[in-house]
Amino acid sequence: MDLIDRYLGAIRWNLPRDANADDVIAELRDLIASRIEDREESLGRALDEKEVSALLRDFGHPLVVAARYGTQHSLIGPDLFPFYWFALKVVLAISLVVTLLSSAGEILGGEDAIRSIMQALHGAWWNLLGNAGLVTLVFAVIERTGWMSEHLSRWSPENLPDLGTLTPTAKLQSQWESLIEVAIGIAIILWWVGVITLPSSWTWSNVKSLTLAPDPIWTVMWWPILGLLVARTVFNLVQWLRPRWKMARGVLSVGTAAATIAILVVIYRAGHWATASSATMPARQLADIDRSTNLGIHYALIVGAAICLLQCAKEMWRIAAARR
Length: 324
What we know:
The protein is built from twelve helices and three strands. By secondary structure, the protein is mainly α. The protein folds into three domains: 2-67, no CATH class; 76-150; 165-184 and 204-324, no CATH class. Strands 1-2-3 form a three-stranded antiparallel beta sheet. Helix 1 runs antiparallel to helix 2 (21-43), helix 5 packs antiparallel against helix 6 (113-145) and helix 8 (168-192) runs antiparallel to helix 10. The radius of gyration is 31 Å and the shape is elongated.
């Protein structure tokens, strides 16, 4: 029929160069003829032109049918896609946290908070879009080079985590919690070392130019805090990527908790952690704000140390139970 010939001609025109056009068209012609015969047999009569047209529409657009015969059907193949999706979530989570932290100073210190928030959201959108495009480009290159096929051939069942006792909801929650913790940890490290710029003091111009500046104790403890942040991020990575390493996770958890307690004790002994200042605020009111701020930090340090102490004791009990 003329309609079928035109349909197959459109497919032939759009076939990839590496496809054998004659064999493909012959195969498709037989398949279409078989479907027409089955349809005519069920109806007990020959199909008219409209019915043949409907059958061809169900068969697929010529561009779609022709694309099935190419060597590369997608930008990122099904074997690589899970790794691509995993990397995309990590990169976007870190990018979002970094962008929000970078914009926090401008939002808190700016006079027009709504405008600052809108600018932050606009920047976050383009930042996420750019990072998503970069990750997609990298994995498209990996897909074309075939590097992942060699990597997948070397995987070992012994390295798989023991997740059989977890429900699907618990698995998903654990993965997202670990991902968020790693993203936040990396973002905080980038802020602490100065990659993400935040102001060293916070000023609210609508509250009589009040300024809260950190005391020198934070400069003295810069390196210990950085080491603790790195160690905690390593712990979160191990907990996320190697859940079977129970002993390593326990040791890292106890070590980071003990180090946190030690750092909090040193900071607590300073007795004063932030200084309030203002050129226009009355001295008595300024002193009340300074005292309230440091009192809040005082209790926060105590609560933080107590939580770390409980965590340390819990992990030590787990390690002892595992050995028994």
